[in-house]
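User: I'm putting together notes for a lab meeting next week and I want to include a structural view of one of the chains we've been expressing. I don't have a solved structure, so I'd like a prediction I can at least talk through. The sequence is below, exactly as it appears in our construct file.
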Amino acid sequence: MAFALRKRGPSNFERAADGSMTLIEHIRELRNRLFRASLAILVGFGVGFALAERVRVLLSKPYCDLPQSIDPDTGLCKFVQLGVADVFLLNLKIALWVGLIVAAPVWLYQLWAFIAPGLHRHERRYAYVFTALAAPLFAAGAVLAFFVTTKGLEFLLNISGPDIATTLEVTRYISFVTNLILLFGVAFEFPLIVLMLNFVGLASAKRLLSWWRVAVFVFFAFSAVVTPTPDPFGMTALAVCLCALYFAAVGVAFINDKRRGRGKEMYAGVADDEVSPLEFDREPVEAGQRVDASAPIDAPEPIAAPAPIERRYDDMT
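Assistant: Thanks for the context. Below is the predicted structure for the 317-residue chain, given as structure tokens.
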């Protein structure tokens, strides 16, 4: 009994890489990728809805750790709900954020599988590196935002005084914390932009280093705007972290320039112990007349004495 094996044809990824896919096939490929990504986000949304209450308690911790948030009658941390469905809608919003994070490996892969065939091999390698660095940088920014929120709330609530009771509205508080986490996380991605400018050849390491004054000013101005408190603590913490990341990115840019030999293009192909070639056209020089050493040397002609200077009567003083 014989079996006929059918040869497997090229995949959509291979066909897109060699440009053999038509426009309709590209649209169908995009539809399939979006459907798989949406399905993964929907599954993550279900997981996030089950964890929404715990996430909301975690986000409420900076406020609930303060003594001003404790109700003296019940001893619990209380928020205010202005609408009937505010907490339910808030849980849905938190579930969506958690679903995006949980399903991130799937929808990021679908996005990458769609755009990767149009990239060169070195561009794919850079994308792998930048993606691997983006996640920990965003997480570091989120942790710093959580820390700044704790210090900021302590500063703001202590200003009101003991004679004023403070109770925060739950949806506005959660939006405040999540927006701050998002801002800090995106701000920590700035070094990747610096590295991208250097890796694609738009800015050298020396030029990036020459912009350090402008970069430091922009970091402190941005930190002063996004931090929730007027005290210098949170602003300085964010600005110093951004400055450190910027100078670290410039250091990596110097290593990249040295590895690629940027700034030494005129000596390309010349070894360290080899003389560089001259870049001008040499003109031939004719040989001069031979000098006979045995020939007598002609005596020099005598120099005539100078003529006497005539003086007039008006030259005498």
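A couple of points you could mention at the meeting. The chain has ten helices and no strands. Residues 1-7 have pLDDT under 50 and may be disordered.

User: Perfect, that's what I needed.
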